[in-house]
C-alpha cells in the first residue's frame, strides 16, 4: 500500500457560545483542518489538526513531496521525514505529523479490518470517561449562553451533569482575578457534591498566586490543579507547598521535558494530547514512561471534532494508567463533520469506536457546508478577546477581565 494523494479541508463548526480562556476566546466556533490520505488501493485515512485556512492547507499540499509513494505502515520513517528533531528547530511540524499519523493509522486499520486500538496493543476498556469542561462564556447575539457569575457557572455544571452524566468537572480559569475564580470554583464544588473537580488557569498565575489558590482549595475533592504556573521550576515550587497533584499539558509536552520531570519531579499528572505530542503512538510511549515512574496520566483536549476525538478514544482505550477522566471540548459543539453526527456521551463516557481504523467516516455534505462556512467567516484570533481588542495576557498575568462587564461582543456568525 502506497500513499498517492493528500488533501486538506479547513472547516469552522459552531459552538453553543463563545468560550473564554486565559489568552483570549474561541469566538463562537472552532476552526479545524480535516486531512485525508488516499492510498493506491482506494482507501482514505482521516486526520485532523487545529486551526487552518490557506496556510494549513498549503502545508499539507507540501507534504505530498515527502509522502507520495510512501508506505503508510512505515510510521517511524515518516516521523523523521516530517519532524526530524534537528530539522524541526527551523520548521516545527509536530502537529502536522500528528494529523498525518492519525490518517496513516486509519488507513492501516481499514486495510487489516481492525480498529486502531488493536494496532496499539488492544483495548483495555470499551468506554473512556470524560470530565465536563466548564468555561466562562460570552453571550450569543441573542443573549443566550452567557456564563460569567458563580450562579451561571453552577447552572452550567448541573446542566452538563444532567445531560451527559459527568462525575468529574473541570473549570477553565485564568480569565478573571484569582479571588473571583476561587469563589466560582468553590461554588461548583459545592454544587456537584461528591463528584471530582479540577481547575486550570492556563499557567498565567505567578508562583505566589498559584500557591495561595492551591492552599485555598485543599479541602475540596480535587482531581488535580492543572498548570497554575508556567515552567517546570515554578511548578516545582508550587508543588512543594500545595497538597494535591499538579497536572500539565503545557510544560511537559515532549520527551525531553518528560525526562526532566522524571529526574526532578515538578508535575504529578501528564495530560497527553494526541496533537501536541505528534500522534497517538508517541502518547502511548509517553504513557508507558509515566507508568514506569508512577506518574498519573489523562487525555488532553485541544478543541476536537469527531476525527481527533476518535484518536483520543483509541488512546484512552489502550493505556493501563489512565488515572483520570479525559478532557473534551466536544460537548460545546453544535455539530460535527462525521457521519451520524456527534458521538454521544452516556453516563459521562463515550464508547470507543469499534469499526476498522479510527472508526469514524466523513459526512461529505457537512464537510462541504462547514468548509463553505469557513470561507464565509474566515479564521478568528484565538489569542484575542473580542471585547478587549488591545489586550493581551502577560505571564504572570495581572490584566484580568471585569466580571461585572455584561456586554455582548460582536462575533461574526
From TrEMBL:
> Top enzyme class of this protein?
lyase
The UniProt entry, under SMART domains, shows:
MR_MLE (SM00922)
What chemistry does it catalyse, as a reaction equation? D-glucarate = 5-dehydro-4-deoxy-D-glucarate + H2O
Oxidoreductase as UniProt keyword: no
Per the UniProt entry, the Enzyme Commission number(s) are 4.2.1.40
> Which residue range or ranges hold the Mandelate racemase/muconate lactonizing enzyme C-terminal domain?
150-245
What GO molecular function terms would the record report?
A: glucarate dehydratase activity
| Domain of life of the source | Bacteria
The UniProt entry, under InterPro entries, shows: DgoD-like, Enolase-like_C_sf, Enolase-like_N, Enolase_C-like, Mandelate_racemase_C, Mandelate_racemase_N_dom
Residues spanning the signal sequence: none
Q: Which UniProt keywords apply?
A: Lyase
This protein's pathway reads: Carbohydrate acid metabolism; D-glucarate degradation; 2,5-dioxopentanoate from D-glucarate: step 1/2
Question: What protein name is recorded for this chain?
Answer: glucarate dehydratase
The scientific name of the source species is: Sorangium cellulosum (strain So ce56) (Polyangium cellulosum (strain So ce56))
Amino acid at each position: 500500500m502506497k500513499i498517492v494523494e493528500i488533501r486538506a479541508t479547513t472547516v469552522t463548526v459552531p459552538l453553543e457560545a463563545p468560550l473564554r480562556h486565559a489568552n483570549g476566546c474561541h469566538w463562537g466556533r472552532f476552526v479545524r483542518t480535516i486531512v485525508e490520505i488516499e492510498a493506491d488501493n482506494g482507501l482514505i485515512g482521516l486526520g485532523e489538526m487545529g486551526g487552518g485556512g490557506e496556510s494549513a492547507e498549503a502545508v499539507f499540499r507540501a507534504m505530498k513531496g515527502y509522502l507520495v509513494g510512501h508506505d503508510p505502515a512505515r510510521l517511524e520513517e515518516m516521523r523523521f521525514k516530517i519532524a526530524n528533531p534537528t530539522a524541526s528547530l527551523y520548521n516545527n511540524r509536530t502537529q502536522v505529523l500528528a494529523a498525518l499519523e492519525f490518517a496513516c493509522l486509519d488507513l492501516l486499520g481499514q486495510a487489516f479490518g481492525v480498529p486502531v486500538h488493536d494496532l496499539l496493543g488492544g483495548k483495555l476498556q470499551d468506554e473512556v470517561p470524560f470530565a465536563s469542561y466548564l468555561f466562562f462564556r460570552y453571550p450569543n447575539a441573542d443573549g443566550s449562553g452567557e456564563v460569567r457569575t458563580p450562579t451561571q457557572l453552577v447552572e452550567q455544571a448541573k446542566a452538563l451533569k444532567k445531560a451527559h452524566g459527568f462525575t468529574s468537572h473541570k473549570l477553565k480559569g485564568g480569565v478573571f482575578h484569582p479571588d473571583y475564580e476561587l469563589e466560582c470554583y468553590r461554588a461548583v464544588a459545592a454544587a456537584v457534591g461528591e463528584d471530582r473537580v479540577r481547575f486550570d488557569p492556563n499557567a498565567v498565575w505567578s508562583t505566589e498566586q498559584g500557591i495561595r489558590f492551591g492552599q485555598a482549595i485543599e479541602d475540596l475533592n480535587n482531581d488535580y490543579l492543572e498548570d497554575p504556573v508556567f515552567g517546570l521550576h515554578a511548578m516545582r515550587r508550587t508543588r512543594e507547598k500545595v497538597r494535591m497533584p499538579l497536572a500539565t499539558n503545557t510544560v511537559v509536552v515532549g520527551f525531553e521535558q518528560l525526562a526532566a520531570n522524571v529526574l526532578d519531579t515538578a508535575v504529578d499528572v501528564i495530560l497527553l494530547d494526541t496533537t501536541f505530542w505528534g500522534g497517538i503512538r508517541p502518547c502511548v510511549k509517553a504513557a508507558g514512561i509515566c507508568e514506569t515512574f508512577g506518574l498519573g496520566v489523562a487525555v488532553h483536549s485541544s478543541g476536537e471534532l469527531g476525527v481527533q476525538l476518535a484518536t483520543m478514544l483509541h488512546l484512552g482505550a489502550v493505556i493501563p494508567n489512565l488515572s483520570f477522566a479525559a478532557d473534551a471540548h466536544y460537548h460545546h459543539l453544535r455539530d460535527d463533520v462525521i457521519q451520524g453526527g456527534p458521538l454521544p456521551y452516556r453516563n459521562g463516557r463515550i464508547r470507543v469506536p469499534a469499526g476498522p481504523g479510527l472508526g469514524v467516516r466523513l459526512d461529505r455534505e457537512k464537510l462541504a457546508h462547514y468548509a463553505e462556512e469557513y470561507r464565509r467567516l474566515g479564521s478568528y484570533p484565538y489569542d484575542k478577546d473580542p471585547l478587549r481588542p488591545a489586550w493581551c495576557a502577560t505571564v504572570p498575568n495581572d490584566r484580568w477581565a471585569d466580571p461585572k462587564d455584561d456586554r455582548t461582543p460582536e462575533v461574526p456568525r
